Structure formats: C-alpha cells, structure tokens
Amino acid sequence: MKKSLLLLPAIALLSGCGGKTPDPQQTFFDNVSVLCGKAFNGRLVSNDEVDAPLAAEPMVMYVRDCSDTEIRIPFIIGENRSRTWVITKSDDSLTLKHIHRHEDGEEDVLSNYGGTTDNEGKGTRQTFPADQFSKDLFIREDIPQSADNVWAMEIIEGEKFAYELTRPERFFRVEFDLLSHADIPPPVWGEEQEKTEE
Q1: 8 A C-beta contact, residue 39 and residue 62
Q2: Could you report the per-residue pLDDT of 27-79, keeping only the tens digit for each?
Q3: What's the first-to-final CA gap in the chain, in angstroms?
Q4: What are the tens digits of pLDDT across the range 110-125?
Q5: By the 8 A CB rule, do 40 and 23 touch?
Q6: Whole-angstrom Cα distance, residue 134 to residue 148?
Q7: Which residues of 43-75 are buried (b: 16+ CB within 10 A; e: fewer)?
Q8: Is residue 97 within 8 Å of 114, Cβ to Cβ?
Q9: What value does the mean pLDDT take over residues 163-183?
Q10: Nearest CA among 107, 96, 93 for reference residue 73
C-alpha cells in the first residue's frame, strides 16, 4: 500500500488550527520541507522539441538545506551540476529563484531569476510568475520571450514532485518519484561559494 509522509504536515495544520483554514503556502512549504535530506530521480515528461536532448539524461533533485524560511534544492541533469532552486517563504508569499553557476563556482550571468506567488495557490501546487528583476534580466540578455515565464512546483498525491515552466509556445516539465530515494549526488558547482554568500 502506497502512503506518503508528505500528507502529515497538512494534517497537522488542519488538526491544530481550531477550525481555521490552513495557509496553502505554509502547507506547501511544509510538504517540501519534509523531504529535506533526501534525493529523488526524475524524468522529462514534456515533449517540446527544444528539450529532446534532455530526454535521455538522468535527473536528480536533492532537497539539501531547509530552514523555517528557505529550502535549497540542487537540480542535476546528467553531469551538469550548475542548478539550485531556492524557495523562500515570507509572511504572505513564496518566492522561487534559480541559481546557476559554472564549474569553477562563478555565478552565471543568467542566475537568480524566478518569481513570487501572486495568489495563495494550493497546498499541493504553487506558481511563480517572473518578477521584475527576471524580466529585466531576460530582456537585457536578449531572451525577451522568457519575460513571460511562469514556473510551478507541484506535489502529486504524495507520490511525485513536479517542476514546470510555461510561457506562450513553451512547456517544460520534470517529474520526480518520491516513493524511491536516489543516491545523494555530488555537490553542485560552487556549493562552497553559495554557502559563504548565505
């Protein structure tokens, strides 16, 4: 029988709030936090032609660091360890940022982009429209189409975790198996610099 501990934070919130509706963003944050210290294998499930080279690449997400306000998740594609997702919680929103580094640890010019929730979302899904910093960055770097990016993260029945990017004529989605742990991956590029800058 397949059951997941992912549902426990939401249940705890429901039982401890005296009839008060739980905050979907807090529920989502807690449901990701419960994965801390674990890694999961993923695969590309979208079929945009531009992503075809990634279809055969192994993918791993590692919920590496968690605090009450921040979760850091390296996302590794094949041998490329350049990417880290950072989810930050404030009183009234969640923010998703993408950190990209080169093998020598230097931050890429296309880094620290992402967005902030503009609605409460659900305890199982949150969306992050591109923020102004990201729009300005994309326009400056001559990829203005990315200014329309909306990222999403989703937990599916406690069994899968999905990362998604959408914009007009663009769809990218990776799903990770939460029922089977992967080996902890090597450090992402620039991990030491990342921790020094925190």
Answers
A1: yes
A2: 999 999 999 999 999 999 999 999 999 999 999 999 999 999 999 999 999 99
A3: 41
A4: 999 999 999 999 999 9
A5: no
A6: 10
A7: ebebeeeebeebeeeebbbbbbbbeeebbbbbb
A8: yes
A9: 97
A10: 96
For residue 7, what is the enclosing H or E element?
Answer: helix 7-15
What is the residue-wise DSSP string for 83-149?
A: EEEEEEE-SS-EEEEEEEB-TTSPBPSS-SEEEE-SS--BTTEEEEEB-HHHHHHHHHTT-GGGGG-
pLDDT band (50, 70, 90) for residue 22: confident
Average pLDDT along the chain: 90
pLDDT of amino acid 2: 43
Token pair of 56, please? 């055969």
* Main-chain phi, psi angles of 153, to 5 degrees: -130, 140
**What's the alpha-carbon Rg for the chain, to the nearest Å?**
17
Helices (H) and strands (E) in the chain, counts: 4, 11
Token couple for 134: 């990201």
CB 128 within 8 A of CB 28: no
